[in-house]
Amino acid sequence: MYIPVKEILKKINMFDDFFIRALVAGLGVAFVTGPLGCFVIWRRLSYFGDTLSHSALLGVTLAYSFEINTAFSVFLVSSLIALILIQLQKKTNLPGDALLGLLAHSSLAVGLVVIGFLTFIRFDIMGLLFGDILAVKIDDLFIIWIGGAFILLVLRLIWKPLFASTVNYELAEAEGLNPERAKAIFTILMAAIIAISIKMVGLLLITGMLIIPAAMARNISDSPKKMVIFSIIGGLLSVIIGLFSSLEFNTASGPSIIAASLFLFILSLLKIKQSIKLKN
Amino acid sequence: MNSNNNMLVKLNNAGYQHNDKWLVQGVSLTVEKGKIVTLIGPNGSGKSTTAKIALGIYKKIDGEVEKYTNKVGYVPQKISIDWTLPLRVLDFMILTENLKDETIDEALSLTGVLHLKNKNLGNLSGGEFQRVLLARAISKKPELLVLDEPVQGVDFTGEIALYELIKKISEELNCGILLISHDLHTVMSATDHVVCLNGHVCCSGSPIDVAKNTEYKALFGEQASQILTRYEHKHDHVHTSEGDIKKN
After folding, report:
1. Which of A155, A238, B34, B43 lies at a 20 to 30 A Cα distance from A84?
2. What is the value of ipTM here, to two decimals?
3. Strands B144-148 and B21-32
């Protein structure tokens, strides 16, 4: 029996190439940010996403300090910040956006201060903030694809209560869908996607990856399902275009991907203009 | 457990307060299968609050509420749909439960809005939207229907037709209905039990009993009382939506 050992080895070797790794990682992230991003827009959670991702820096520094997995540590810190936010909302009279700003900037600041203490490790701050495709290792691919598949599976399971309560909380509650539980699980999923995508896009731009493809999708869709599908396609295209130009022009991977998604968003505006013209 | 199998929801001395102000208190009522219970009362008398207590939307309540079913259809008094959601009537129909296409079509044609199925929810008029809300609530064939002013903004003939539909549904599905309405005329003829609220239960009973109650008269005036008592006579004719009168 002939076993194509050489071909298989060749395929495995393919993942040695940093660019292929980055591409596979980016596409995995885009599959998950697509549907989550739609919910971020529908539920008006843009600044919530920002706050969680800012706190990710603290997670990264903790990972270095205690030598644990970065994604795991970021996930823990982001979930913790989300919990603190919920508690502060209950216990103080401050408006939600003030609390979000407070947590976002203080966790970012604390993260940077901690980095200052860790003089024995050399940090690539730019890479942390804006993403670094060189940093994506084989392990990260596993975390992204397995973690991503898990996030999508859980989102599928809570879709009905989460979506229904997004449209109208009281309807969902009255008809027995338990919206509080769906909201709590969704918060954890947000922390998880930030944890697995931080190396690719960087912590300052993750929210962009969530919002911009979904915003583009909103412009061209008339039903929630369509919006989710277009959002995923938009994310995938942004990753492909962004990473190739990042390679070509030697720019940071995060900003390149986000710039590509902005480009797609602008194209989707043209479609809106067209449909308005058609109506007239 | 309750020995009465027909019981759907039971409020026992229930009340709810918000910001140290009682919205409603001391409400006791039961909704049973095949029965229509109507809540009436002036603005701010706690009708919607009572409905939300019965539905379990408010958690921190005074007294007790026992719900014996999870198959609930709800038409809220106020609902605002965000433009950020691309939502067609069709998507809205399957919001809380997946339904077959025929079931959706059937419910939409019952309330007369089948032609709007693929329209964006944001583009509907107030009355059209109200019909969609009602269609959604009945489409899942619930055991308990809670209708908070279900025909607000619907045109006059439509209003009568929809109330007839509600009555028909309660008979066909044998479901219990908790109805909130300002429209004393149309509602009373179909109601089994009336609860008159004004921050508390000011009186309750059959429509005739309530109409004769002095507290009710004080609350709504003499005229409203006459409206109710008019239904004491048996109807020997029906008014069709075209305005004709048909003998039974």
Report:
1. A155
2. 0.81
3. unpaired
